[in-house]
Specification:
With 286 residues, this protein is an all-alpha fold. 61% of the residues lie in helices and 3% in strands. It has one domain. It is globular and about 50 Å long.
Amino acid sequence: MAAVSWSSRLALALVVACLGAGAGWVSVAHAGAPAAETAEVSDDGAGGQDDDLDFEEEYAEDVAAGDPLEPINRPILAVNDGLDRYVLEPVSKGWDYVLPDFVQHSLRRAFDNLRFPIVFANDIFQLKMVDAGIDLARFLVNSTVGLAGLLDPASTIGLPRNVEDFGQTLGYWGVPPGPYLMLPFFGPSSLRDGFGLIVDTGLRAISFFIPLAASFAMQGLDTLNRRSLVRDQLDAERRASLDWYVAVRSAYTQYRYNLIHDRKKAAEDYDYFPGLEIDTDRPMQE
């Protein structure tokens, strides 16, 4: 069979990443918390108040673009949600029935380990050299002692996980998020984060070094496993929400702000948002 060109692999990898977003699954855990609660409190009371004010002002600037595309975004969410309810959710129930939780979490860690090129590159882009060193050490330890990432011995020896992506890199350097977007299959995003997702797909190096069919199979397995892990919480959040669209938008906007500003609140929020993988049993560095 003729070799697949680099551009074709990138395009196909982008499609797979699209499917991997799981038809826009999200969790809105902690979304109802006041914005000021996400600010870190310093030892100095006055300093803590200043941090709260800075958070409120900066967050207001981040969401100032609003949601002018809501008339388009809502139908897209409805389609994404339908695909999730009637395709991914039933299959994920069978997956959850067959595999115990510890196996699912082990697979999750292994796929997280494969995201190393994305995280490491964006550490460098943001000039976070200490984090880059930690993530490199984590990858080496977990890829060897941790059996290709199935285990996480790096965390036990003081090498905490960091979560970075190109959307965060753009935000780090002052690029505003732009209008809120609900992308088909990708789920919640923004103009900035949508572009970042394309770049991160190109950095997902594994798709260029394994057969195309294997790349599709691995991404499908990752998608199914992630959906299974968030199934119960996602169902609970849907039932508790008065307006699922607003809940998703609010949670995603706050979550991305917290990630970009390296706030502790981001370590407490559950995923799933496209391109962002955070385990509740293994939060990122605080």
